[in-house]
Amino acid sequence: MGSPMAHEKKRMPNRARRSLPDERKRHVGIIARLLHESAAKSSVPPHQVGKTLLRLAVKMENQLYAATHGRALTDEAIRKHLVFLATRACSKPTR
After folding, report:
1. Separate counts of helices (H) and strands (E) for the chain
2. Residue 85: inside a domain, yes or no?
3. Which of 23, 30, 52, 65 has the CA that lies 20 to 30 A from 77?
4. Rounded CA gap, 11 and 78, in Å?
5. Residue 92 has what DSSP assignment?
6. Is 13 strand, coil or helix?
């Protein structure tokens, strides 16, 4: 039978995979790779990373898509936009 996580691959949820065009799927993949690289440098447990990484990547891609008005982006452009979005999110005052 194997472990319950054995068949759970690190891929987009079915709902997101069906509804996103190929270009946006590519953006999600790039964002997921960047998040994974960042998480690998931290002390976050691997099971926690795998559990939330793709869901967070899809949410971040939605913000990126809105901020760039749907333009296709390169890897470097995605990285720069994510840094901008993260900076903006961190500078917002908490309520």
Report:
1. 4, 0
2. yes
3. 52
4. 19
5. S
6. coil
**Within 10 A of 42 (CB to CB), how many other CB atoms are there?**
8
The boundaries of the domain holding residue 62 are 14-91
Tell me the two tokens of residue 52. 């939330």
pLDDT at residue number 39: 86
- Rounded Cα distance between 25 and 28, Å, is 5
Q: How many domains does the chain have?
A: 1
pLDDT surpassing 80 at residue 82? yes
Domain membership of residue 2 (yes or no) is no
Under 8 Å CB-to-CB from 85, ≥6 apart: which residues?
Answer: 60, 63, 64, 67
- The confidence band for 10, taking pLDDT boundaries of 50, 70 and 90, is low
In a domain, 1, yes or no: no
Residues 58, 70: Cα–Cα separation, whole Å: 14
Query: Mind listing the pLDDT tens digit for each residue in 39-62?
Result: 888 888 888 888 889 899 999 999
